[in-house]
Amino acid sequence: MKLYVVNKDGNEKIFLRTVAPTRKALAQNLGAKIFDVNGKRYYVNQVVAEKGADNTSVGMFLGGVIGALGGGAGVAAGGLIGALLGKEQDKKEDAEVNEFNRSSV
Amino acid sequence: MTRKNFSPLRFFVIVFLLVLGVVIFSNKEDAKGVVKITLESSWPAVLIWLLAIVGVVAERVFTTVNSDKQSGVVYQSFGKYADAIFSIATFGFAGSTSLALLKGLYLQLFFQGTYFTGFADFDLASIFLISSFLLFHSTNGTLRLIINAVFQAEANDITPAKT
Q1: Hey, are the CB atoms on A76 and B139 less than 8 Å from each other?
Q2: What 3-state DSSP class applies to A9?
Q3: How many CB atoms lie within 10 A of CB B115?
Q4: pLDDT 10s digits, B105-125
Q5: Residues A42, A59: one domain?
């Protein structure tokens, strides 16, 4: 999960080097509801979360490569199992993103 | 599928696995030989340990450690350096040991080696399933650490505002 604010000068995303499950937790970690990034001031309520890596693709790739030990069918089976495991991680991350974006300070 | 939903990474992985599957299927004996040579070399284990070391170090250096990790027993009892060493050992041993077990199973099954004597078929199938999952878990975990570190490399530091 990545946290960002939208730049005040335009629509560019500024990603933040911090992690927190909710906006309230982020404010607690910071010790303030207002913070500075690149010389500009933002409120914790302006922070938005989005998903990070595509876990399904990574899982499918690794599962397929490990499955290659079992031949052509192993690649297919390993890729499928890896994709399913990765998809579960994606679902978990989606839930974390939604929890953060629904939270308030 | 709209252009916005198109994932180049997912497309690449599917094409790669299709090509890999077709190549292995159409050259079974050659593929077995390549897998045997790869497994018998030390490179897969070296790669797993390098991934573990690079992944954990990159995570600790380039990313913010989340509160879940800070509440871990090793982190709280022995500090962040011991936690990092423990994480590297966990990923490294899980990956290299599961790979060694898979190598033994592969050579016994396809090349008539004798690595597991006195094991029934059910036991061998169990070893295969658990080892495959452990190898997946180890490499997937370390790759995720590296991906997260790369994502956070473009991130900006934030400081609480002075009111």
Answers
A1: no
A2: coil
A3: 15
A4: 999 988 888 889 889 989 999
A5: no
User: Which of residues 64 through 93 in chain A touch B, CB cutoff 8 A?
Assistant: 64-69, 71-73, 75-76, 78-79, 82, 85-86
Structure token digits, residue A10: 């335009």
Q: Does pTM top 0.90 for this prediction?
A: no
Of B71 and B52, more confident = B52
Minimum-distance CB partner of A68 among B20, B144, B160: B20
Chain B residue at shortest CA distance from A55 = B144
Structure tokens at B143: 């790759």
Lookup: tokens for B74? 């090793």
Number of domains in chain A: 2
- Considering the domain architecture, whether residues A31 and A69 belong to the same structural domain is answered as no
Range of the domain at A20: 2-50
B44: its two tokens: 């897969």
Domain spans of chain B, in order of start: 45-153
